[in-house]
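Sorry to interrupt, but I need a hand with the structure work. Could you add the entry underneath, on a fresh line?
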Amino acid sequence: MNGDADVRPARALTPAFYGCLDWHSSVHGHWLLARVARLQPGAPVAAEAREALKRSLTPEKIAAEVEYLNGEGRASFERPYGLAWLLQLAAELREWGAEGQPTSAVAVGLAAALEPLERACAARLRDWLPKLTQPIRAGEHSQTAFALGLVLDWARAAGDSETLALVEQRSRAFYGGDRDCPLGYEPSGEDFLSPCLGEADLMRRVLPPAEFARWFAAFLPSVPQTGAAAWLAPAIVTDRAIRSSRTSTG
């Protein structure tokens, strides 16, 4: 916060993405609306999703989002998780708009409105990534691999060769030499992402199939080749009354 003006409702500060515990949750909530509307255009919920997206993704609201993102002291705002989800939303709208279905014109307009924020988020990530000396291997929002996977998908969909080359280069530098990921330590009681599988999911996007197969065999040698599923049991939530931004096993 830079002053009293920042102590205002989220709907005034970030008028496109608010109403959740955090900004990124609103962003990927909008991504979900776009995906449902694209994949199930005839479903009753799709019409409501399209209207909700049109209310949120207006040029005026997106301009306010860009202003907030570029505010003093916000260089690390939602970096990288929320920024990556914003790009994923842009990729979803781009794919929807290219499909030629009756609702595609809606997506084209939404994508155009979102574009200034899309450009700002991509630029923020390109500025940050060369400065990151070590990846973050947590199982939460800060995980580098999960965010880079989303950014990579967006860069390919958007035809952004600069971002694509940077993410591929840094992914190889961060993870190319990794071996024997400690899968036995997962899941942690704080994790909602798997550190090991998040990294593998990124590298299968980066490496050609034969190279990935060799890398994966060294990275997770304990994964059975039989198709058995007992090697990573899901966490058990024992108290569903807990309300948190994180998945809890307690």
Q: What stands out?
A: Residues 188 and 228 are 22 Å apart (CA to CA). Residues 4-131 form one domain.
